[in-house]
Design brief:
Keywords: Membrane, Transmembrane, Transmembrane helix. By secondary structure, the chain is α+β, with helices and mostly antiparallel strands. The chain has 7 helices and 14 strands. The strands form 2 sheets. Strands 2, 3, 5, 6, 10, 11, 12 and 14 form an 8-stranded antiparallel sheet that branches. The protein has a 6-stranded antiparallel sheet with strand order 1-4-13-7-8-9, with no helix packed on it.
Amino acid sequence: MRNLLPGKEEQRQEEASSQQSQLHPNNPWYQPQAQPHNTGTHEKYQPPPGPPPSSFASSSAAYAPPPGPPPKHTAAANSSSGYAPPSQPPPSWEPPPYHDWTQIPDNSLLPPPPSIGYESSHTANASPDDGARAYAWCNANPLWPPQNVDPQVYSMIQNYQLNLLKPPTYQGSLRPQQHAGHWKCNTESNNKDSCLLTNLPMYAEMWDSPLRTQRPKTIYFEIKIVRFVKSHGWRSSNSESDPLVAIGFVAPPFPTWRLPGWQRGSLGVHSDDGHKYVNNTFGGADFTNPFAVNDVVGIGITFAPPKSPPAYGQPQEPKLDIEVFFTRNGVKEGGWDGNQELDAEMSEGGTIGLCGDCDLFPAIGTDGGLEFEVFFTPELWLYNPF
């Protein structure tokens, strides 16, 4: 019986293998292997020839370590201590030095503080009704776009052949002199707020804008105060009740019963209080001393290509560098940045019309009786702005 059992067992294994092959006839990933035949209990597993793999590690002929000592021994060989400290000094745990807040910083390089604005001037002001009427007029008459004057007209501007125009409220005379660009004027004591303008602009945007020409453009003119007059006669000194004269520039159209600087698109310096006005219907801002008889005062604006690109967060359209300056008796007395931000309540609209994007006309404001001269031509100026 024992001799027959192994044969039956082999027969059953061959039948099982045949059935398994029929279940996976086309599966390349799985092919059952045939069981070994004639494997009796007396047969033993034969190991593969040669020594086991571990024997290679102990054989000096199969493996040789790299020459030289291990890496950690190199530093010890080059240094007696085995460690070389860094060349820089050890870090300090002391706190950083504190700023001495008791020292007064040098603020000479800082920009000047903004001028103090006033709600009203300490000298005589126009009536609130006139101001409200001018405000409504400006809203109804927006600023004009720049005009493309022909070359002949622009040649007259370049030669300072500018004529003064008399507004309806002006009570006095305008007398052109022999030299082109020179005028003598006087007003009566009953003269109300009036603004003299020229027939042609001194700054023609289409011709003069540095964004077009890539070079600076300066406009400038002067006036001389000859006398002030009151209802009882001529006077040669100023007082709070004396008449006034203002010098500045305006962008058209402008209400001519208002002084330059009081409305949008205008700036001016006034003789009675020395304040500067930039689209300011209130009291202006501190700037200079009041004008005196025989003073020759001038006002100018220099438009220049921008020296630096717009800062982050600012409008990216090109913006001119603008300097407004004021002179007295041939000496530059002060000025301001034409791009400076204005008080939103006192200067509604800011510097609109004064940024080099509109034509600009010389403007001379008068109130009360006075006598003065106007100089548009450089030959008669006391100050040279060029």
